[in-house]
Amino acid sequence: MEECAHAGCLMELCIQLCITMLGKQLIQNNLFEIGVPKLKKMLRQRKIDKKHQEELNKTLHRHEKDHFLGPFVGLNPEYMEMIIQFGMVTVFVASFPLAPLFALLNNIIEIRLDAKKFVTELRRPIAVRAKDIGIWYTLLRGLSKVAVIVNAFVIAFTSDLIPRLVYQYMYSPDGTLHGFVNHTLSYFNVSHFQPGTEPMEPMHLGYKVEVCRYKDYRDPPWSATPYEFSREFWAILAARLAFVIVFQNVVMLMSDFVDWLIPDIPKDISIQIHKERNLIVELFMKQERGKKYRNTIGDPSPQPLRSRPSSQA
């Protein structure tokens, strides 16, 4: 934390995420996704004679022309791109709140580019019935849970939220933030510089500096444990860890409540599914009754033989 800029560590992470979301997701991926198939298509067309290609276009049907397009490699690259974007948006949303907006713009462009790519650049994929998206749903749930923990640590350890609250409610004489900056600065005796590390010009300010201040929570040089972590440091660390635990549990409870409140299947669709199941059961029961009735009519049970009286015999 001592190496972060004056604006805090969040600013550097924000700049990196801005470059990633704008440069990589919005520009690089979309350009490569539509540009690479077009280049492959141009190379394939250059290998075929133009006259022969015109004859083929006149004689072949639409499905036969589509066979000359690029092969469909599967949905794994598409899913992977969305998983990376979802991870970037959720895991570091506390440091770059505009990431969801850029992700929305990227997805709007992605839908149109994918539609054009699947229609004009690639062969039509074979449709396969699937119950859900499979392992990708598990990855999304795992990323969402990791994102809660990461955002809690980002807020607690890379911002001044917790130190300000601790100072305001524990160390401030009047319950305000007056004196907070002085509270965050520690003392250092310039005579304790190691040989070769002291300032080159000690009289640069016009007078000799004996004590300087730096941003950290450490004991002063005149204490029994100079330059060790102070009690304020451990109090703030405990508050940060407590914030992480509380933040994680609150967000998890809220997500579970919203998950319970909003069903996966809408109520009207669930009613239709229930009616469909009842109709299937009724139809099955009617078929079973019909089978039993036909069996009783077509295969009557044999009558027992009567024995003759002894007199007639």
What would the average pLDDT be, to the nearest integer? 80
What is the beta-strand fraction?
Answer: under 5%
Q: Helix content range of the residues, please? A: 55-70%
Q: If you compute it from the alpha carbons, what radius of gyration comes out, rounded to the nearest whole angstrom?
A: 37 Å
The backbone outline, from C-alpha atoms, is flat
Gap between N and C termini: 119 Å
User: Biggest sheet, in brief?
Assistant: 2 strands, antiparallel
Multimeric status of the protein: single chain
Main-sheet strand order equals 1-2
List segments where confidence is low: pLDDT < 50 over at least 5 consecutive residues.
none
Q: What is the number of domains?
A: 2
Topology:
Elements: H1 9-47, H2 50-59, H3 62-66, H4 76-91, H5 99-121, H6 135-157, H7 161-171, H8 180-184, E1 185-189, E2 211-215, H9 231-261, H10 267-298
Antiparallel strand pairs: 1-2
Question: Mind explaining what this structure looks like?
Answer:
This protein has helices spanning 9-47, 50-59, 62-66, 76-91, 99-121, 135-157, 161-171, 180-184, 231-261, 267-298, and strands at residues 185-189, 211-215. The protein is mainly alpha-helical and 313 residues long.
